[in-house]
């Protein structure tokens, strides 16, 4: 450790730290443009100048290493004059168009010009202008404002793993761009907007919409993939205008995937279900709530529980799932399923279906095997964590499944399940690793031999030393934020008269009444013609067109709700705006329906539902924190039959239009048209 004195305050920092880190440890704010804690040091903006004793000129604190006994002055005349000069240079060519700039009000250049700049400029020459560049439908560029901090270049290369950005020319003619004009091909491009310290890179969908001081800010969590990133929702009145990431070192650091950032904004107000509908004379017609509940009650009269089924969707909150399960139990039905994809998930033990290593634990692993998954498309933020670990070295990665660009190097071991038992040289790599891990994609279990794959993968983890007392390297990667919570609540076929039916059995005519809670990700055309369908959801998507009764629900941004991410972390989302029209929170709809159906549920408020959650599964009693799980139980998921060597199906390339919210978003449709021009448009009602 090195002892450094900063403005009279003595601090100890690790050897090899920079002066700016020592200043931050002392509680001193140092201005910066190019420096960022998660990016490599560029040292090219020079805004972080400080005075170091016995050094005759100001030094850039981001690139200057500390030394034991160093004395630093952050607000001396030398440091102030140096920063003032740097700011004067930066503003020589800046257009000073703050009144019409989308970054106005939250611009680092604005703030630091006021705090550290002069009140005039000595330069009267004409300012340069740079042609606007087109980087795709998400990031808007006004490169005349660029101060060449190179944060965007370093993020694209180091974090996103897509080295498409760079600089051409030198001096005042330097321009940041893609060399050949093209759309950025990364699922993390929206983070460039957050990183840009000026208005050179802003959000194209958000352009000229509002100013930051007009927004109401709500902390919540994302559910459009299974990472469960911490987000901040910015709203004005009844509209959501922006979704931004919040820093959460254990989950998403400070990054957010593009679908999670952009899709909810415009999908919130398009194709929405805002009032009940009831089918009369073969056509859906608007109705009152009481009429919708009465239609359900009339149809359920005389129907035994064995002929009633319920399916929970992928974005559904835990409160709604437990309420629907309690209602189905009261009706005598054990026909429950939350696995729309048919994945052979064994819910007997939690470690069979969670990401046991934890997301942050990826950085502690020293070998990785990916089976039947493309993390780049299924969980881009988690994939960035894998890339971060791979850049540190000594982290061999093997892949069984499709050959895809994952943004890091790997050894392709095979296309199908047969490679699980025949890893070749990679088997020795896993056995020699101290903390090996594997990631099993949920899609790998959505096959006829899914149970066999789960069993074989678990046995591989056991034989490769992944299951130890202080380390569990077996990880199942889910695709949406509502999938783990439903499994935790046991929303799967249960015991009952004749046994519970899964979704496949229900679609084969096993039920007369089918309650779909936000469930759209299965082949709706398989529902038998005589089945009475109750659809409860927030968008007019695939299943809504087949419904006999529609109950309008709320999206994840329109309610206080509980979700569980892929690692099993219980998190709370909060209401940012109220649902439109007559739409209501889903658990309240089920609670109201239960009373008219003659099976009134025992809770009346949110606190009561959450007490019920904790009673069903104690994991819901602990929110936000997650203890690292080691391996203690020797029981395996079971054999599940023989493996089929059919290659794993590739992850759908249309990352942007996955799920009801993605399909309802015009911005995501534009992304799909840009990146997949040959693909047919995916319409919600198809």
From TrEMBL:
Give the E.C. number(s): 7.1.1.-
Free-text remark on how the cofactor is bound:
Binds 1 [2Fe-2S] cluster per subunit.
- Which processes are annotated in GO (biological process)? ATP synthesis coupled electron transport
| Pfam name, any one | Fer4_Nqo3
Single annotated GO MF: 2 iron, 2 sulfur cluster binding
GO cellular component, as recorded: membrane
Tell whether Iron-sulfur is among the UniProt keywords. yes
Tell me where on the tree of life, at the top rank, the source sits: Bacteria
Task: Name what cofactor the protein needs.
Answer: [2Fe-2S] cluster; [4Fe-4S] cluster
Q: Where in this chain does the record put each 4Fe-4S Mo/W bis-MGD-type domain?
A: 215-271
Q: Which residues form the 4Fe-4S His(Cys)3-ligated-type domain?
A: 78-117
Q: Does the keyword Protease apply?
A: no
Q: Where is the 2Fe-2S ferredoxin-type domain?
A: 2-78
Keyword terms, alphabetized: 2Fe-2S, 4Fe-4S, Iron, Iron-sulfur, Metal-binding, NAD, Quinone, Translocase
**Which SMART domains does the protein's record reference?**
NADH-G_4Fe-4S_3
Reaction catalysed by this enzyme: a quinone + NADH + 5 H(+)(in) = a quinol + NAD(+) + 4 H(+)(out)
Similarity-based family: Belongs to the complex I 75 kDa subunit family.
Cross-referenced NCBIfam families, in alphabetical order?
NuoG (TIGR01973)
Q: What is the annotated role of this protein in its UniProt record?
A: NDH-1 shuttles electrons from NADH, via FMN and iron-sulfur (Fe-S) centers, to quinones in the respiratory chain. Couples the redox reaction to proton translocation (for every two electrons transferred, four hydrogen ions are translocated across the cytoplasmic membrane), and thus conserves the redox energy in a proton gradient.
What is the protein's name according to its record? Answer: NADH-quinone oxidoreductase
Give the originating organism: Roseomonas acroporae
Q: What is the lineage of its organism?
A: Bacteria, Pseudomonadati, Pseudomonadota, Alphaproteobacteria, Acetobacterales
Annotated gene: nuoG
């Amino acid at each position: 450790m090195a002892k450094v004195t900063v403005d009279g305050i003595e601090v100890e920092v690790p050897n090899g730290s920079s002066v700016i880190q020592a200043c931050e440890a002392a509680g001193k704010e140092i201005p910066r443009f190019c420096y960022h804690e998660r990016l490599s040091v560029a040292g090219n903006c020079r805004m972080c100048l400080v005075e170091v004793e016995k050094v005759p000129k100001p030094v850039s604190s981001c690139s200057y290493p500390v030394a034991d006994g160093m004395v630093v002055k952050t607000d001396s005349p030398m440091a102030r004059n140096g920063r003032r000069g740097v700011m004067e240079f930066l503003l020589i060519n800046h257009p000073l168009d703050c009144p019409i700039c989308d970054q106005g009000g939250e611009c680092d250049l604005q703030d630091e010009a006021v705090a550290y700049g002069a009140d005039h400029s000595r330069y009267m020459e004409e300012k340069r202008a740079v042609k606007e560049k087109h980087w795709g439908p998400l990031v808007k560029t006004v490169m005349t404002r660029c101060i060449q901090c190179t944060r965007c270049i370093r993020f694209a290369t180091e974090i996103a793993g897509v080295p498409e950005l760079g600089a051409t020319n030198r001096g005042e003619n330097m321009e940041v761009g893609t060399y050949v004009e093209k759309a950025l091909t990364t699922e993390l491009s929206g983070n460039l907007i957050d990183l840009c310290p000026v208005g050179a890179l802003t959000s194209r969908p958000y352009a000229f919409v509002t100013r930051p001081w007009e927004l109401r800010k709500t902390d919540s969590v994302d559910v459009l993939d299974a990472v469960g990133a911490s987000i901040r929702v910015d709203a004005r009145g009844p509209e959501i205008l922006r979704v931004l990431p919040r820093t959460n070192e254990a989950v998403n650091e400070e990054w957010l995937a593009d679908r999670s950032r952009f899709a909810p904004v415009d999908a919130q107000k398009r194709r929405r279900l805002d009032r009940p509908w009831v089918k009369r004379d073969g056509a859906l017609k608007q109705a009152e709530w009481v009429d919708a509940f009465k239609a359900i009650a009339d149809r359920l009269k005389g129907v035994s529980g064995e002929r009633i089924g319920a399916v929970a969707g992928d974005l559904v909150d835990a409160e709604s799932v437990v309420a629907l399960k309690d209602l189905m139990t009261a009706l005598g039905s054990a026909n429950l399923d939350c696995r729309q994809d048919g994945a052979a998930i064994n819910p007997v033990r939690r470690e069979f279906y969670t990401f046991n290593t934890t997301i942050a634990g990826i950085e502690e692993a020293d070998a990785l095997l990916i089976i039947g998954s493309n993390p780049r498309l299924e969980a881009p933020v988690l994939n960035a964590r894998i890339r971060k670990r791979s850049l540190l070295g000594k982290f061999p990665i093997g892949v069984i499944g499709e050959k895809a660009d994952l943004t890091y190097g790997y050894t392709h071991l095979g296309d199908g399940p047969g490679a699980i038992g025949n890893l070749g040289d990679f088997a020795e790599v896993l056995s020699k690793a101290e903390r090996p891990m594997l990631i099993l994609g949920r899609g790998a279990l959505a096959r006829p031999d899914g149970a066999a794959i789960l069993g074989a993968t678990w046995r591989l983890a056991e034989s490769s030393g992944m299951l130890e007392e202080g380390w569990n390297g077996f990880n199942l990667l889910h695709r949406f934020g509502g999938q783990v919570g439903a499994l935790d609540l046991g929303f799967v076929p249960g015991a009952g008269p004749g046994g519970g039916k899964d979704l496949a059995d229900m679609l084969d005519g096993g039920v007369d009444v089918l309650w779909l809670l936000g469930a759209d990700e299965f082949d709706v055309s398989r529902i038998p013609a005589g089945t009475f369908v109750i659809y409860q959801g927030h968008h007019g998507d695939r299943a809504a067109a087949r419904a006999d009764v529609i109950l309008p629900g709320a999206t994840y941004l329109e309610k206080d709700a509980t979700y569980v991410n892929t690692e099993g972390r219980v998190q709370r989302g909060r209401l940012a705006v109220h649902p439109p029209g007559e739409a209501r929170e889903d658990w309240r709809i089920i609670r109201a329906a239960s009373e008219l159906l003659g099976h009134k549920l025992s809770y009346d408020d949110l606190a009561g539902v959450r007490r019920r959650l904790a009673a069903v599964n104690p994991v819901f009693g602990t929110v936000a924190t997650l203890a690292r799980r080691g391996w203690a139980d020797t029981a395996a998921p079971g054999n599940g039959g023989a493996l089929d060597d059919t290659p794993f199906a590739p992850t759908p390339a249309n990352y942007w239009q996955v799920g009801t919210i993605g399909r309802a978003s015009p911005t995501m449709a534009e992304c799909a048209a840009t990146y997949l021009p040959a693909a047919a448009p995916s319409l919600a009602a198809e």
